[in-house]
């Protein structure tokens, strides 16, 4: 990575986009873009850069987003044409990872066909959950059972590969318990044996205190 914190562009500042930007800015450098000067003024003091510009125009986006950006989130789902044009422009700018909000299944299907990494349906996705996924690349899914206990599905970091669960000793090292594993085909094993070897394409579902789970997901 070219810089310390992730650099992320959030384009479109409706309720979802604004909530996402405010969550991301705790851990990343955030640029927000919207055509409405009023919403730009509302959030300008809370993010690193806030720009009023038309994301449908390639030159406008090219002037704002350079190769230092790691990811972009297109939250202008209410306008199908604008959403698609913005994604195309971001791809042309070679933004490494693009997420986009969809207003319905047809819109989502178009975005997936275009190669969008994550298609977001705000009716079922929360800005907090998406922020966690963006900020923690190893995180597949995360559920808080309470303020203190969480279940997390992770793609194991490289340091786990080729080692057994017994070798990793996650219960002792991180105070988490592996409650399931999924192999590369998607087959799920509940309470896998300790001689299970962690391999590429596998995911692990772990249960533990929220702070312990947070420490685990920071591993590389």
Tell me what you see in this structure.
By secondary structure, this protein is of the alpha/beta class. The chain folds into two domains: 7-135, NAD(P)-binding Rossmann-like Domain (Rossmann fold, 3-Layer(aba) Sandwich), CATH 3.40.50; 139-217, Alpha-Beta Plaits (2-Layer Sandwich), CATH 3.30.70.1450. It is built from nine helices and eleven strands. It has a six-stranded parallel sheet with strand order 3-2-1-4-5-6, with helices on both faces. The chain has a five-stranded antiparallel sheet with strand order 7-8-11-9-10. Helix 1 crosses helix 6 (127-135). The protein is elongated. The model has no long low-confidence stretch (mean pLDDT 85).
Average pLDDT figure? 85
Under CATH, the topology of the largest domain can be stated as Rossmann fold
**Low confidence ranges:** none
Kindly state the number of beta strands.
Answer: 11
Sheet bearing the most strands, described?
6 strands, parallel
- Estimated share of beta-strand residues: 25-35%
Q: What count of structural domains?
A: 2
Categorize the overall geometry. Answer: elongated
Second-tier CATH architecture of the largest domain: 3-Layer(aba) Sandwich
N to C succession of SSEs: EHEHEHEHEHEHEEHHEEEH
CATH class of the largest domain: Alpha Beta
Q: Counting H and I runs of at least 4 residues, what is the number of helices? A: 9
- CATH level-four homologous superfamily name of the largest domain: NAD(P)-binding Rossmann-like Domain
Strand order of the largest sheet: 3-2-1-4-5-6
How far apart are the first and last residues' alpha carbons, in Å? Answer: 14 Å
Could you estimate the helical fraction of the residues in percent? 25-40%
């Amino acid at each position: 990575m070219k810089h310390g914190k992730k650099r992320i562009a959030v384009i479109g500042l409706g309720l979802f986009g604004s909530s996402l930007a405010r969550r991301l800015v705790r851990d990343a450098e955030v640029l927000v873009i919207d055509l409405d000067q009023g919403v730009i003024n509302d959030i300008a003091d809370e993010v690193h850069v806030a720009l009023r510009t038309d994301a449908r125009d390639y030159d406008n986006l090219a002037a704002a987003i350079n190769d230092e950006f790691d990811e972009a989130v297109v939250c202008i789902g209410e306008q199908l044409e604008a959403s698609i044009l913005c994604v195309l422009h971001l791809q042309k700018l070679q933004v490494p990872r693009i997420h986009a909000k969809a207003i319905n299944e047809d819109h989502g299907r178009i975005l997936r066909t275009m190669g969008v990494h994550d298609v977001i349906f705000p009716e079922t996705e929360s800005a907090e959950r998406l922020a966690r996924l963006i900020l923690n690349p190893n995180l597949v899914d995360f559920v808080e059972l309470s303020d203190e206990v969480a279940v997390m599905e992770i793609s194991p970091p490289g340091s786990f590969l080729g080692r057994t669960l017994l070798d990793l000793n996650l219960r002792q090292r991180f105070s988490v318990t592996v409650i399931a594993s999924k192999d590369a085909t998607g087959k799920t094993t509940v309470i896998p044996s300790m001689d299970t070897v962690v391999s590429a394409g596998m995911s692990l579902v772990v249960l533990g205190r929220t702070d312990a789970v947070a420490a685990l997901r920071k591993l590389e």
